[in-house]
Amino acid sequence: MVIPLYNKVSYIWRAVHSVLGQTVSNFELIVVDDGSTDDGARVVETIRDPRIRLVKQENGGECAARNRGIAEARSELVAFLDADDEWLPEHLETIKRLSEKYPECGAYATEKVTVDPDGKRGIPVHDGIPASPWEGVIPNYFRSAARWPVCSSAVAIPRQVFDSVGLFPVGVRHGGDLDMWCRIALKYPICFSTHVGAVYHREAENRVCVLDRALKEYSLVKVIQDALSACVVPQEQRWDAFEFIAIHQMGVASNNIMAGDPRYARLLLRSCRSTRKYARSWRRLMLLAMLPPGWPARLKVAKDTMRELAGRRR
């Protein structure tokens, strides 16, 4: 299994010990220190366990660190865990069972519980996936993917799959893991268990997904658009694939609206104007994108302030 590490000194001990606490004990753990400037690597070095291997490299980004871990791994099944998350004790046992039961799949994932900074916990409901307890092949990955059943801290991938679809996209600042899951889903079935195997912590201070800088289009959009153009996506999944593109285009558009680039936001929104599933959200975003730069952010501040005042009155 592979843990990419970059400036997560506050969390890495927790992540590593969650791996060491698995009910399955026959594994190797490769921690790839991606040019950290804190003492995270030193924390790993203090944990004495022969199954741990620390690899250091110059900073190349999270995807480059995962790729280095894949190259270093000797196992035929490579599992991943982000340094600020953790596994529950039966995660690897569940992954092992899935891989033995469904050997044809390109990825094996367990459910995760999300933990907000205030301690609030939640488990997502995935469209198109039966209610818990359930495990098996996801009937339509793109219909279920909006709430990411495949998470970088709760997935394992057979080594030969990387030979087929390639490695994680280096240089992609946002969504490189989603890009990978899409490329796998276009060629292989995806296996999933509703058994909660991982904890996704939202409080980590340098998660890419909480950065408020303007973002550019997800690389996965081109991956799916090319697949649609080449008629690689099965007919019964084509509309779901388009809607999957739409929700990500809208997410990036929203980010750019708040960051003061409504022109680029409008460009993204026009590319997914045919959405039916998210039509109401699309119209709201387009209205915000028509406002002068800065005004949407001010409206958000005002809305948050009103909500806070209303909460105090209660």
Could you explain how this protein is built, in words?
The protein folds into two domains: 2-210, Spore Coat Polysaccharide Biosynthesis Protein SpsA, Chain A, CATH 3.90.550; 219-298, no CATH class. The protein has helices at residues 12-20, 40-46, 62-72, 91-101, 141-144, 159-165, 176-185, 219-229, 238-258, 262-270, 279-289, 295-313; strands at residues 2-5, 29-34, 52-57, 77-80, 86-87, 107-115, 121-122, 135-137, 155-158, 190-201. The strands form two sheets. Strands 4, 5, 6, 7, 8, 9 and 10 form a seven-stranded mixed beta sheet that branches. The longest helix has 21 residues, at 238-258. It is 41% helix and 17% strand.
List the helices and strands and how they pair.
Layout (H helix, E strand, L loop, with lengths): L1 E4 L6 H9 L8 E6 L5 H7 L5 E6 L4 H11 L4 E4 L5 E2 L3 H11 L5 E9 L5 E2 L12 E3 L3 H4 L10 E4 H7 L10 H10 L4 E12 L17 H11 L8 H21 L3 H9 L8 H11 L5 H19 L1
Parallel strand pairs: 1-2, 2-3, 6-10
Antiparallel strand pairs: 4-9, 5-10, 6-7, 6-9, 8-10
Main sheet overview? 7 strands, mixed
Number of domains: 2
**Principal-axis shape:** globular
Report how far the terminal alpha carbons are from each other.
48 Å
Radius of gyration: 20 Å
Beta-strand content: 15-25%
